[in-house]
Amino acid sequence: MVFYRFLFFHRLRSTVEQFFYRFRSPKVLAKFSIQKGEDHIILPVNYKGKEYSFVLYTGASFTLFDASLKNELGDVKKTETVTTPGDTITVEVFDVPEAFLGPFNLRCCGQIGCVDIRKLDAFKNKEVSGIIGMDLLSKHIVQIDFDSGELLFLEPAGGENHEWGEVFPIRYRRKGIPQIAGTVLGDISEGFIIDTGGAATGSLEKTIFKNLLYKKRLQTMEPHG
After folding, report:
1. Predicted confidence (pLDDT) at residue 150 exceeds the cutoff of 50
2. Most buried in the list 46, 106, 187, 221, measured by CB within 10 Å?
3. 69-72: Cβ within 8 A, 24+ apart
4. pLDDT grade, residue 45 (50/70/90)?
5. Which of 36, 26, 21, 14 is nearest to 150 (CA)?
């Protein structure tokens, strides 16, 4: 999965803002192991000599620290509204402390938000200490291989790599959330948010879903078990 110039889902290759780049043997800047079959991608962030679990979340506009770390973050600089696909929340904003995701200093984000992570719908039952958002991810090329359980941060290199598959243009929504163009039932054009924080395969906006039900193009099903 790559942001800024590319986005990979294993063998899916994407371009951002319609620019097309090709690479051969890109240099690996950082490598992380990820758990197979999990709903979320968990990465280690080192902060004040301790390792904390952060979720890689392309549906979050910027990086968040959990409220359990608030007393270590210094003075509140402002409050701001943060958009995720499932929530719009008001958070307290702090200058980024020196914290590292592998070799990457989170201070490149400028500021971070602080919120009770477990109040977010997607993480109610998750023991995580923060979220890596698009403010950091948009600065890098990231490849996720779910089959091998690896996540790589890559450096661009010249040349072709045919194994990367088909190209899909990516556009940024308001506040930097990435999306790709798609269709529903073959003839309804919609933008689809790329959301690594969601546990479901996909979802539709309520108005689209209700309209399709009204036109009897969809049927609801009762959950089993």
Report:
1. yes
2. 106
3. 69/114, 69/129, 69/130, 70/114, 72/48, 72/97
4. very high
5. 36
